Fold each of these.
Amino acid sequence: MNNVETLIPAVGVITDVRIDTPDIKTFRVVTTDGKKAFDHRPGQCAMLSIPGVGEAMFSITSSPTNTEYMEFSIKKCGCVTEWLHQAEVGQQITIRGPYGNPFPVDDVFVGKNLLFIAGGVGLAPLRSVINYCRHYRDRYGDIDIVYGSRSKADLLDYKEIIDEWATDAGVNVHLTIDNAQPDWDGHVGFVPNYVKELGFDTNKTAILCGPPIMIKFTLEGLISLGFDKTQVYTTLELRMKCGVGKCGRCNVGAKYVCKDGPVFRCDELEELPNEY
Amino acid sequence: MRKCSLNSINSVFAEIAKAATLYLPVDGKDGSAVYTKWEEGKVWSNALNTVRSPKDFFFPQTENLMAFKTAGKNIEIIDTRSESEDFVIFGVRACDVKSFEILDRVFLSEPVDTFYAARRAHGVIVSVACTKPSETCFCGTFGINPAEPAGDISAWKTETEVFFRANTEKGVALLSKIEGLTEECTDEAVDAQKEKISAIMKKLPLKDVTTDAFGGGKTMDYFNSPAWDELSQSCLGCGTCTFVCPTCQCYDIKDFNTGKGVIRYRCWDSCMYSEFTRMAHGNNRLSQKERFRQRFMHKLVYYPENNDGLFSCVGCGRCLAKCPISMNIVKVMKKIGGENK
């Protein structure tokens, strides 16, 4: 989009609502004439709003290679998200974007082995990247995906992970949940520990997203495995209003997360005040 | 250079007001100056500066962005913008003129904020030199000369006359409209006034406040300074400093349900408020110390880093005069700057 009226959204329609977990739903959105609202790159975000309720920034979870619609995996945790969770198919919302910088999928990542690490709803922004890389599979090396959540029911995109990602050649999926439960025979434990247990080779580029505490410990884990911070990418989330680096809300150091992020290489974060 | 007698300034105002809405500082009931729409009978204030900065003219405290009509599951977006009208702001001090450049760099950088840009395009700025800079003034710290204010037209006011010099095309156009009410003159009287002002500047209590210590490459030293604890200790988080500040530009976007529809508006916000960064999953600046630090780090370190060393303060002194606990950017600069020299 990037039109001049950057604060003025377009009308979008929710055409599908998928219940992913007890508190995460995935919404499919198109414009009123049934098209994709705008093109985006993996890792970019969009502003969704419900008039009278509010506007909030969400990562676009569908891959840019999907030319028909966009998807947003949204966890119920505030005013806008509570409202969205009650919305039915056919509900109109507003949408504007895309905002922020994408993951460097077309340059830095090309030819690399990729290690995706996500916790909880942190998989939402990475799903866009994962599916983009699966689409252009021959451009990248091996793909490892480590994903963990509180319980089996809290694993986002579980069906897609099992049916599609895990069956792809050269894609290794490593799932974990926080506590053991009867119908789970996979790994049990937190993501940072699981990453260390798996003990990845450092010939990979890591892409990390999850709760701040999980990012912190996973990054420490990767460094103890010999990774350099320049090999690790993450995406940040701060409160945003404008999406274009003017309202001042997501300012950290000299950066605006909406415009200079949300994707950062971990060594870039080191130069910023720890306020994210 | 052109001039008119101070006695005839009202006819100049009347002429300007024929073609554009004219705003100028007028004394309010309590004696403090407020930008007011000029009409016959309004008198140009002698006060040094207005209580509120003129940023409202380009970035109003609240403005509607759009409206929505909702029916069932459907939403209609309604463009509520009206054509901007031509206006003239008369009597802007040098510090406030500089603040427009600082705001421009935010709102006119890509993607351009068209709400701001429309007003900026329709506004003409007539500045006026400060004959008596006051003890809270420190514009000199930021290289601003109050005797030589920028703007589309620069003006100098003596006890008997007002002098005008056009600086831009807009200024030339406006000055030509009042040509019949002004006469060509030499620079002599203005030069004499400039000298007087510069003599006052040398005596101001804050003349030695310096930005020398601030600059790129030491962000974390400033950020981690132990002095923030003490400096922020008494901060009430009232946000007065941000509201009177001519360069503070953080804003909020909110929806208001009128009963008949929804209006989405933008309003000033303050990084001093606890809500500013609060999200569903937490707040990245939990304490007043962190919020206080953000405001000054932004003005003295982050903004300059992004804007070729330009500081986001013009030394107008409003925050010095208005802070209920007498904390201000000068104290911060002395303390933090002193440590990092």
Amino acid sequence: MSTVTAQPTPDSGGLAPDTAVTPTRGAGARKLPIALGVLTALLAGILLRSSHAGDTTFQLAAESDFVTLPDIVVPSGPTAWVMVVICLALTAEAVRRMLAHLRQPGWIPIAFAIAWMTGFLSWAAADGRIRLVSLLGGAVALAIPLVFGALGGVLGERAGVVNIAIEGQLLLGAFAAAITASSTGSPWAGLVAAAVAGALVALILGLFAITYFVDQVIVGVVLNVLVVGLTNFMFRQVLTPNAETLNSPERLRAFPIPILGDIPLIGPILFRQTPLVYVLYAVVALVAYALYRTRWGLRVRAVGEHPKAADTVGIKVNRTRYRTILLAGAIAGLGGAYFSLVSVAGFNREMTGGAGYIALAAVIFGKWDPIRATLAALLFGFATNLQGVLSAIGSPVPSQFMLMLPYLVTIFAVAGLVGRSRPPAADGVPYRQQ
Amino acid sequence: MSDKDQPTPESEKNPDSPVVTDEPATDAPEVDPHDARGERSRSLLREITSGDALAGVLAVFLAIFVGSVMIAAIDEGVHETAGYLTARPSDFFAAVWEAISGAYSAMFRGAVFNYNLTEPAQQWRPLTETLKFAGPLILGGLGVGLAFRASLFNIGGRGQMLVAGGAAGWVGFQLDLPLVVHLPLAVLVGMAAGALWGGLAGLLKARTGAHEVIVTIMLNYVGYYLLFWALTKEWLLKTPGSVNPKSPPMKDSAVLPDVLGEQFNLHFGFVLALIAVGVAWWLLNRSTLGYRIRAVGQNPHAARASGINVGRTYTVVMMIAGSLLGLAGVNQVLGTVPSGVSLDLDAGIGFDAITVALLGRSRPLGILAAGLLFGAFKAGGFTMQASENISVDLVLVVQSLIVLFLAAPPLVRAIFRLPAQEAK
Amino acid sequence: MRLVLRGITKRFGSVVANDSISLTVEPGEIHCLLGENGAGKSTLMNVLYGLYKADEGEIELDGQVQHFTGPGDAMAAGIGMVHQHFMLIPVFTVAENVMLGNESTGFAGALDVDAARERVTEISDRFGFHVNPDALVEDLPVGVQQRVEIIKVLSRDAELLVFDEPTAVLTPQETDELMEIMRQLKEAGKAIVFITHKLREVRAVADRITVIRLGKVVGEAEPTASNAELASMMVGRPVELVVHKGEPKLGADALVVKDLRVTDLAGHAQVDGLTFTIRAGEVLCVAGVQGNGQTELTEALLGLQDDVSGSIKLDGLELVGRSTREILDAGVGFIPEDRQVDGLVPGFTIAENLMLNRSFKSPFVKNGSLRLGALREFAQKKLKEYDVRARDIDSLAANLSGGNQQKVVVARELSRDLRLLVAAQPTRGVDVGSIEFIHKQIVATRDSGIPVLVVSTELDEVVALADRIMVLYRGRVVGIVPADTPRETLGLMMTGERPKDLKDVVA
């Protein structure tokens, strides 16, 4: 069972790019201009092939803002073309910087993304109405489990434990949340149960991956299968016959925060969400702070980069890893509560539908950094929500392709086309003491 | 599992199994203490009493035990008798026994031999069901196992099956050809599609270093949505006039023929699986390509320094793996469920294949055995669900537990309080 | 602090790495532990440092018996270790590395980076280290990284410092600086254990010498002992420090390298315009401190580097731009510097390893399938011929000792029709018996009229094998000199300095 028990060497373990195959080099500087150029051409191509007449309405307001922002009505075609021109200008700037061997600043892709999206939306929603608040607010809501999952993934991998089992943690979290919230009548108890469930999966992961040196990717995959089997089994045998008592939790309702929630645009997007979202904000901030600014974080990162070095300065490597993945599991588990307490009330078979794998994608796309991973998860949430919005207004883009986007972006990311990501050096490598 | 048929001795080793060290070299302690776990003689007796073989058997036993606990835990009779456990414990244990034995005898009836029937053909029918389920599991297991031998983790079985199933299905109902052309063509197109989907991950790894675990996971979903999209286009897979994402049924000329006549569901896919086992065995143990695959899998650096093109090997092995999983997808679309391509055509086999490959230790004959075992679990599981009202998902739990326990022999030994293999 | 080790025994399986070792180290002295690779020196120190648990024996510090459960305990007791492979985290800054495990924190567990920075600066100034606390460790040169290791140890107020083979990666000049630092520390009253197998260094700084062989203490020696005395204690028998070889019978120019450049992924030239020639029947040794382009040079010869320019002609055939397979087929034999990484497949049998670079054509391949019979026959023969000590040809390479592993590699490479042999660090981590055997094989290869390129960072080996010596520094040739060039001159050249009166020799 080579892969189960093979002892990975530091350069072949985990998810690091293989050093035995040398990656094509020197492509770094050219990537951004090429990517921007292709995207601009794509947008122009779409516009040329089918130009829509009419106006597009961008609605910025939601009810009960301090001030009601007016709708923005723009002519579809011309607006889209203006955006193409802006995209073109940004591409030209990127090309200029490439030729001058200058660093590509972060604002170029961001500005490009906004312009491109605006152009695309005004074309796609010709004669229609884009409700920005629901587009972005929905994206935040859909991203909840992804962000929780991604944070769990980032923490674990920063400590050197690859966590493919995010999916399982979300699913068991959803299951535990539903059953606990139903039987206690408190969705809050459900949240706690979700965290415990996630930590439980992490504990098993740790038992096999840390204590018994089983390949972490394999344990993760098998754990996912185990959790699917377990929850399906329990769902059919226990939850379905006792749906009244065990699978009808009270749903977590949106809870607008006074004042903050009344800020135009931002308020309804960020601060009229369910309490789980506010927990999320706190967790993101805490994880980002703790990982980079505290003793705990320094040690976690040390253990993930060079466990032996950490050991020689007296840090208990495996104990640190256990603690970290338990915490990570609890965070991922919380995300599971989204499915059975927020999205719908109640558990259903395999209801996470691969969100754990998107979260994993966000970890990688976010380069193992909590803030970037959060942003990546939000981006993926946005893509999913955009797909919903577009199919609702009858957009010509097949929804399947929109849904494919997070996965494609991740493939591009790991292939180094969207910036090379470097995982923690000892990611996935078990630590053995003599 | 005997390794007698292998030309190479156990070439992948469990780090916790005794390391066979050679005769104490005269330059003795010139051994890196990190690698050296000392030399031990490995006698057959010791192998059985304290070795991996016993741990393997116990792993299966342990997993089935957990499954039994789950069966008992949800059983009505057990619940009732548990209410007066202290008063009449015998009732409780009788109920437990009844629940568990009922479940497992139902599994046996569903997987091997149904003693409740009288006609011999019908009695043995479950065995053919087992073989039917085993076919794609073996094919998928080979696809995953072969990649394992090159140290690649192919989690993309689902995507490879979906894409292959879609492609084979398209040939299967869109074209009108005589059977001798149609069926092979559909099979080959399916395998080619699987090879493409798998090879893509290999190629990306070879060219950019992108980790195949991530790429294959992502390609699962890309493949899923691609098939989804194809099922909305009439020129691809959509059934005209239907809103369901399901294609029309396969033409008769493209359906895998039954092997044992119409009264059994066993079709030619199982024969293909057996052929694939033979080919894979030859490939790994007797061919130079297999030699290179194993060399790359164990030490890509040394392979590269010895003139082996590591990247090309990755690509080729992933193409072969993809085509095998593709064949598993073809087996579903043209054999088991010829009523049309749908999004769940993979039936979880893409992930089951991982457990099959792990249980089979990535060796073709091991995979054959593991595939048969899990095929029996599946066939029996459905009977158990129908007759005892115990969810077939129990099988998934037992299956994954077997693999987990198997991967950590020291854990199993600890549970059973067997002597540790190594005096630390 | 006074350290006493009493009867330390450590076993790995049935291999006894340390056999009842006793040792005393006084404060203010530099105590050398001298021994061959694998004699058990590092194991002993890892026991002392709490990384391994001793099976028997006890550790006593200032009269107190210690029970270490991990490095943390050892450190708390005042033991500091400068590891052979630096225990630094490359992506952390110097300050972060120094504070790790010993962090001072402020409110809510927040790191006090300023305190760590000050501590680094203070120690750095005290010993004249010139280390910037905010530099990332991965950006620092090796010598500076080692100072960071020392700062790390000193910042924990260690009283007993262990240096484990500290000079392996240093230039002679950096080595001298390190010796100076060790003397300084000794003056400051620290007890120092210096582990090495290099006799010259021992005699330069040691106050006392303990020699270890096969896991046992074989005796003490005075720093005034001669090299030959120390060496024979180390090895257990009189050692010939020279390789017997006759005058070379030189043939025509065989390997002609012109203006060779190798650029790494980051765009730095690792080999920068090398030009040299090796004649048939000649050994050219490449000397230099590790990391001065030797690895890239050998890899370029084998087609293992991507960005190579210039020309490598072997008997007139251009090798640049060819694949590794083509180069091997052209008759280049390659003993890589790290057999574990590039030389062997550990999970393969000896037989399988012997066909590693012949997996495409005869004699072991026919129509895409393996000829196992022919392979077995071949392997049986080579096992005997090369004196590989293994049970049989089906033994896994992973289970062989370093010397026997290396013999398998040598057997594989020398049993093809060679036109060039490239041997990188051919005897690294190999016992003395195997060293002599491998050296003989290399000389025999040369005497059969094959050009040989040997890369070695061990000056002894270079001098013993070479017909000519090429010294590399930062990817450039400092000079190509005769084999009898004085060591002092070679040492100077390894720092990049070229003596004024030096003349390159053309064979």
